[in-house]
Amino acid sequence: MAETGSGDDSDQWDPNSIQEAARTCNVRQMRRALAIAGVSPNIMRDGQPLIILLSSRLHPNQRLGTDPKARLACLDLLRQEPDFDVNLPDRAGDRAIHYLAGHAASRDDVEFMQAVVDAGADVNATGQHSRTAMHWSSAHGGPIGATKVDLLIRAGASVTAIDVFGDTPLSLAISEAEGCLGRDLAAIRRVYPVLLAAGAALPAEASDPYLQRVIEAGSFANYARLHLDRLTAMLTPKPAPADGQRRSRRRLSPLRRVPPEVLRRIVAFAFHVGYY
Predict the structure, then answer these.
(1) Between 157 and 7, whose confidence is greater?
(2) Does residue 265 sit in helix, strand or coil?
(3) What's the number of domains the chain is made of?
(4) Mind telling me which InterPro entries this protein's record contains (predicted)?
């Protein structure tokens, strides 16, 4: 006998049980459902595969909050099935990685997103309007947008992908920021340098002060170099006075003995050069 959504072992297994298990991250219920012969980890109901139900935060039960460990455990159960397809799209063509890129809003969500990537998610797959996960993370990243963008970049995602409207991830982020008046504005703007450092093309013009400075420098690489020059100059100890007077030892910079090339490396390592 299999477990139902209510957990009553005396009931026959309901085909909807495994979908409900994915929506609510019910590990025990999913384990029992998958154990029944003929039940596929790729089963779909209403155009939604299990991996998307597990990844989406749109379901009421998930909006109330679920145990992050249970969510990861459910994914692990799916991954143990030999025919599991982490890239199975919904009826609109979007995949789990697209849902997570757009809706992940916490560190726990990002951890789950990383687990989906580790499971083989195609980070360059296109969905509706030919948009990739990078488009979604850049345009609807929320307070942790830069974290999601960085995760995707490390997984090999392109920052230059173009959707059917001609938009890149950076152009969508800029549009989102221009229409944002709330507290998410700073978070959206943090996406800019992450994309630029990974090779995103600069716009011809921009109203954002940071982007204006990068455009004036000619490229992100040039801007980062100039930024490093300024920071290094600020931390470089001043030469001794020309009149020969010695400064108090307490006022001598501890960096005075550091070779210039080493100091430059220290500055580059310690600061997000080019990111502000």
Answers:
(1) 157
(2) helix
(3) 3
(4) Ank_Repeat/CDKN_Inhibitor, Ankyrin_rpt-contain_sf
